[in-house]
Structure formats: structure tokens, C-alpha cells
Amino acid sequence: MAIKTKRSTKIAVTCLGWGIALWLFFPIFWMILTGFKSEVQAVSTPPKLIFAPTLSSYAEVFERASYWHFTFNTVIISVGATVGALLLAIPAAYSMAFMPSKRTRGTLLWMLSTRMLPPVGVLVPIYLLARSTHLLDTCTGLAIVNMLTNLPIIVWMLFTFFREVPAPILEAGRMDGATRWQEMTMVLLPLALPGIASTALLSLILCWNEAFWSLNLTSSNAAPLTAFIASFSSPEGLFFGKLSAASTLAVAPILVLGWISQKQLVRGLTFGAVK
Amino acid sequence: MSRLKTACTLAVLLSGSVLSTAQAAGTLTIATVNNGDMIVMRQLSQEFEKAHPDIHLNWVTLEENVLRQRVTTDIAMKTGQFDVVTIGNYEVPIWAKQGWLTEIKPDAAYDINDVLPSVREALTSDGKLYALPFYAESVMTYYRKDLFQKAGLTMPDAPTYDQIRQFADKITDKSGQVYGICLRGKPGWGENMAYVSSLANTYGAQWFDMSWKPMLTSDAWKKALTWYVSALKEDGPPGVTSNGFNENLALFASGHCGIWIDSTVAGGLLFDPKQSQVADKVGFASAPKGPYGKGPTWLWSWSLAVPVSSHQGTDAQTFITWATSKEYVKLVADRKGWVAVPAGTRASTYAAPEYQKAAPFASFVLNAIKTADPSGQTAEPRPYTGAQFVGIPEFQAVGTQVGQTVAATLSGQMTVDQALTAAQSSVTRSLRQSGRAK
């Protein structure tokens, strides 16, 4: 009886897991499918599951906009912001995790609270700053904004990962004569690498998908893939096919990257969860 | 050492991206929306670059509301990111009064008198022209000839709203997913409120009196909104509060609407067999009239303007003159066919027999635009112009606020009376806050 219950529970949990996974994946599946429909098919009621696929939307997307230009900008901005954020966040998290002061907790909470401010609330000052520093419509400007936006989350994540590293290991390093820099780079970082990798990946994904600042601080030269997608929305005329094709092209690289590194990502996210 | 190399590489990459963004002299940045006519302009702009080798064109295509927000920020802060902007006749007079737009003085070869007077006037402020029209639109009624024939009905050339309602009742077949009438229901100043304001005008309603006191609780507003809510609830498609221009276009094009009252620009799309499954069954008539019959009438034009913040105003004017010229119309006709030429702006386009042949709705559109009068007389004197909008800066916010209240009547959250009372108080508050009303 006990085995029976266990089996049925297992089946129910499996079904629930699959159900949730399919429910979450359905919008992406529908977007990919719509990209292969004609504009009329894309808006037909009831929606069509079986249809003659066409590449016309993809052809138009490639004809109208330079996909590679937008992708290059996105890669530069995302990688630049992530590298910059890690360079700042690793020493910050290291000091907070291993040399906490009475203000550490308050500082961490204050950093996180900046994420609660709606971005539009600081649009004008950021725009003015970008204008006066000649960083409007530059990859550098957007990378800096993305870096600063994601910094609180990155510091928090790294702080959590670093705290899982036993302090005696670092002490042992110090006993052997390691400097603070060597202790951080040669002892701590290799131990926390899965956590750092998953933090970097999360930062990359956040930068890749960021739309508000991309649309407001860039126009043509530094416009990333989010601006590329938005350019296919039309106030007059059918556009769902082209929009879906553009969206599929925009999410494809980061989706593939996430797929390849999912083992690392899960390992990083569960790092230290079980002692 | 390797760390230093990585840091240097990153620095070079990032600084490279800064350097690459420095705008070359002679490069015009054009902010536009993703409409069919704009896409054609972008494709054919290579001809302009060939004729003007010193001018290079850089295109920025944005979603309509993002475009407004970006361009407003750019002009207000004098950043000079855009040299040519695509805006409507709602923005032109407001921005011109703010001193944001450069006055346009086309030469004799441009033949400004060929531009339809109503369109030209809508882009003029204090006697000065501030934008050139790329294409223009008014409002008309589209209907399915086959459904009307089956029901034994005849659509008059100039129907009334009472007739439209009767026709919609008769051709609705909800089991067959054919809905008698499709109208804009999606909240927004440029979505449901464009249609509802236009409907209200012909019922004798208006937004404000001469002291900027809202008149939304008037009997005329109540009658107009009651017609709208009742028609859509009984004969409209499901989920009407999600339907804007595009959604209704898709519904009509896929055979689910019997009647659709909307922009004249839909004609070219509905008659195109590539985009419409009912291309051979579409009939058209004038926009319906309500009990008042007169009132301001719908006019919208997507126009090209040069912001004062542009550092290359002369080149920008050269471009917009080319893109709205008779020569451009001919270029489109040669390359894409007459049906693809930008509509609603030039008398010479409508005089061309090839265009009349390619676009059976041409004379209707011409008549609708020629007679369109955004400054038309309302039942009582009014301090503003505009038919489907109110020509004041506050209208974007106010119109969207009221649009949400109107949508609530369709979803059954509010009655017409409740919605109008709520709209009256929210608009009163907004106008007091802005200092326009006391």
C-alpha cells in the first residue's frame, strides 16, 4: 500500500512538473510557431496549429534590419556590464562576507532597496548624465547603466555564495602567507566558481533582456536586440508574424547559452544548499 | 599579465563602441514608426542617397508611443539625436508653439498647393508650416458586401448610426463567429478614444466648454456612449477591450466582422489579397452620422518634421521635401505599384487614373480627407481644435484615463452613467492640476 501511494505520488509530481514546465514554455513555443506563419495566419481565429510554414517573416526581418548589428551591440553591452559588475561585486561581497562590520547588513539592505525604485523615476537624471558625458547611444553608456542596475543583485548573490565557503580555509591560506588579494583570487574564487558562473549567467540574461534603458538611451548605433524587437511593432498593419520571428532571433542566442550551461547554473544556484 | 590583457581588450572593445557611435557629418538620423508606407520609404531612400551622395541616412524605427516619448525627451533636452521625426497632426501645433520644430519652407518645385488644404492646415501653426505630410487618413465605414447581400440589406453611401446598428443586428451570427460590428475598444487616447471622441462629435457632444470645464456628463455623451456600449455588447466580438486598430483589421481581414468603422488607411490593407481573406467582398461608405450630424471630423496625418535640436536642419529639410514630393509618389508607383503610394496628401495622386484604377476606394478617401475638418463646429463653442483628439498637451494622459473608464463599461465593471461621472471628475482634476482650468 505504501509502495502504491509512493508510486502514485511520484506520477502526480511528475505530471505536475511536466504541466508547469509546458505551461511556462508554451508562450515561447507559440512565439516560435507564429514566426513561421504568414501575417494572416498569425492572427487567424481560432488560432492555427497546423499550417503551411513559411520563412517570409524571417526574410522580411533580415531585409529590414541588420540583425547582426543589434546582436553585436547586445553581446558587447551584456558582457561589458557583467564583467564590470563582477569586478566591483567580488571584492565588495568578499569584504562583506569575511570582514563584516556593524553596517554590513544595513548596507546590503540599502543596496537591494535601490532595485525597488521604478526605473522611469530616474529617467531624466540618468538621461541628462548620459548626455553631458556623451554616452547617449553608446554601448559603454548602456553597459554602465546595466552594470549599476544589476550590481545589488550580483553583490547579494555573491555574498550568499561566499558565506558558504568555510572561513578556516581562507585562514589556512593566510597562515601560509597569502595576501588578501591572493586569498581572494587563489583560494576563494576557485571554491566559489560555480556560484560566480551562475551569477554571471544571470547578469548576462538580465542585460540581454533589459528593454527600458535600451529603448531610452540608444537610438541607432548602440541599439541592442530589445530595440530590434520593438521596431517590428506597428500601429497600422499586421505584424505578429514578423514580431515573433524577430523575438525568436533575439532570444535564440541566450536560450542556447542557458541550455548549454544549465548544469553549471543549477549547480551554482544550489551551491551550499546541502551541507 | 593575462588579466591585464583581458582588461585592455575589454576597454578597447568598449571605447571602440563609443568611437563608432560618433555621428559622421552628413548623417541624418530619422526616427520613424513601423508602418507599411514608412517601410517603403526606407527601402526607396537609397535613391535619395544616390542623388545626394553627401547625405547618409540612419533609420531608427520605434513603437509609436516609445517614439513620442523618445522624441519629446530628445527635443526638450536639446540632445539633437534625431534630425527628422515622424509625428502626427496632434503633436505638430503643440510642439510648434513650444518652439521645438523648425519652420518648413518648401520651394516652388515642391508645389505645396498640391497638398490637400485640410492636411496642410493641420500642420500649420500661426500661419507657418512646421511639418510635411507623408500620408493622411480620415474615417470611413467598411462592410462585407456578401453578408449584406445574404441578409437583403443595402448600405447607403452616407449611413446613420441608427442604420448601422440595425444592419449589425441583422448580420451578427455569433455561432458562426461573424460579429455585426467591430470598433476600437482597447483603452488609449489614440485607440478607443479616437473613435469614441469622433462618435461623440456627431452626437453633438464635446470634451470641454469655453472655460475648460469638462462636458462629459452631458446627454449627448450619454447617448453616444450608450450606442457604443450597446452595439459592441450585442453585436461585437468577444474580448472587445483588447481590440485596437490592428486587432480589428485582423478580425475583418479574416472574415469575422460585418461592419468596421475606422481609419481610411485600412482600405489599402483590406483590399490587398495578400493581407485580407475578404479582399473581394469589401464594400465601403462614409463614416456614419449621429443626431447632430455636424461637428469636427477625423483627420490624422503622419508627417515628417525637423526638430530645432537637429544640427543638420538644411539636409533634413532636403530629405523631408523629397520624401513627401510628387516625384516620390511617382517613384513608389514605379517600383511598388500605384496601390502602394502614400495616400491622403496630394491632389495629384488622386487625379492619376492609374491610382483610381488600383484603389477603388480612392474617391471616398479623397472626399473624406477633403471634407475632414478637425476645427469643425461643435454644438456649443469650444476652446480647442481636433476631432478624434483634443489639441492640448494634457490630452494624452486625460484621453487614456477616460479610455480606461470607457473600457470598463464594455467589460461590465461600470454603467455608462458611472463611467461618465468618473471621467468628468478625473478630467476636472487633471486640468486643474495642469493649471488650464480653475
Automatic annotation (TrEMBL), chain A:
Keyword Transmembrane in annotation: yes
Recorded hits in CDD domains, A to Z, give: TM_PBP2 (cd06261)
PANTHER family under this entry?
INNER MEMBRANE ABC TRANSPORTER PERMEASE PROTEIN YCJP (PTHR32243:SF18), MALTOSE TRANSPORT SYSTEM PERMEASE-RELATED (PTHR32243)
Gene Ontology terms: cellular component? plasma membrane
**What protein am I looking at?**
Mannitol ABC transporter permease
InterPro entries in alphabetical order: BP-dep_ABC_trans_perm, MetI-like, MetI-like_sf
Pfam families per UniProt: BPD_transp_1 (PF00528)
Gene3D superfamilies per the record?
MetI-like (1.10.3720.10)
Q: Which UniProt keywords apply?
A: Cell membrane, Membrane, Transmembrane, Transmembrane helix, Transport
Major localisation: membrane
Its localization reads: Cell membrane
Domain of life according to the entry: Bacteria
Residues annotated as domain ABC transmembrane type-1: 71-261
Question: How does the protein associate with the membrane?
Answer: Multi-pass membrane protein
Please report which protein family the annotation says this sequence is part of: Belongs to the binding-protein-dependent transport system permease family.
Report the source organism: Gluconobacter cerinus
What are the GO BP annotations of this UniProt entry?
transmembrane transport
UniProtKB/TrEMBL annotation, chain B:
Give one Pfam family. SBP_bac_1
One CC-aspect GO term? periplasmic space
**InterPro entries for the chain:** Bact_solute-bd_prot1, SBP
Query: Domain of life of the organism in this record?
Result: Bacteria
Q: Respond yes or no to whether keyword Chloroplast is given for this record.
A: no
| This protein's record includes keyword Signal | yes
Cellular localization per UniProt: Periplasm
Which UniProt keywords are given for this protein, alphabetically ordered? Signal
Q: Which residues form the signal peptide?
A: 1-24
Predominantly, its location class is periplasm
Family, according to the entry, reads as follows: Belongs to the bacterial solute-binding protein 1 family.
Report what the protein is called. Answer: Sugar ABC transporter substrate-binding protein
Ranked from the top, the taxonomy reads: Bacteria, Pseudomonadati, Pseudomonadota, Alphaproteobacteria, Acetobacterales
